[in-house]
């Protein structure tokens, strides 16, 4: 469900309004508050978000180009579905790209890079994964810190294109990871996995670090497939 705010008075169109509408819709999709496959009715979104028709349409077009929304001829827009085959494909490609980024970062990182990894891993370890108001959902604070930790690991990578591809794959993975939140709590030690990643990176141990990132990403995929959570969304 999109978080409501008071409808806005008529406002002139601007790039900033489109960017704000895009940002809000994107956050709702990544948090799975707009669930996979959910039909997006533009008039309803305008009322709920308080933006004009033009701003919402442009935001949906941008989200479509990112693969988070699909446009169906004569049917309008829908949140992109999640599927087991896509999950497996994203995981394979992301593991490869993350490993390349991490290897480059280890080779090029300085003391500031190391310090940022250590500090964000420590910060993340002190946060609760679940939203205290809704334990079935991930905490937004945890999600933001988790994102910063993974960015810290690869921050010293010297390839802008690898980093762009990595960001695209991270975003696509986010909805799958959030679906797995209730399962994460019972079946894995996320704090330990993140600590292993941080220690391997700071130790400049490329084989250990790249193996750790692959295992970290693949574990979420195995948990989701074994639990049939993704299949349940496919058939919903």
Key traits:
Arc Repressor Mutant, subunit A; 3-stranded antiparallel sheet; 11 helices; 5 strands; 236 residues; globular; two-stranded antiparallel ribbon; 2 domains; mainly alpha; Four Helix Bundle (Hemerythrin (Met), subunit A)
DSSP summary: helix tally: 11
Q: SS-based structural class?
A: mainly alpha
Q: What is the CATH-assigned architecture of the largest domain?
A: Up-down Bundle
Name the helix and strand elements from N-terminus to C-terminus, one letter apiece.
HEHHEEHHEEHHHHHH
Distance between the termini: 17 Å
> What is the CATH class name of the largest domain?
Mainly Alpha
Global shape: globular
Give the domain tally: 2
Characterization of this structure:
- The protein is mainly alpha-helical.
- The protein folds into two domains: 15-79, Arc Repressor Mutant, subunit A, CATH 1.10.10.10; 84-235, GntR ligand-binding domain-like (Four Helix Bundle (Hemerythrin (Met), subunit A)), CATH 1.20.120.
- It has helices at residues 15-30, 42-49, 53-65, 84-108, 111-125, 140-154, 160-179, 181-187, 190-202, 206-227, 229-235; strands at 39-40, 69-72, 76-79, 130-131, 134-138.
- The strands form two sheets. It has a three-stranded antiparallel beta sheet.
- β2 and β3 (76-79) form a beta hairpin.
- The radius of gyration is 19 Å and the shape is globular.
- 32% of the residues are buried.
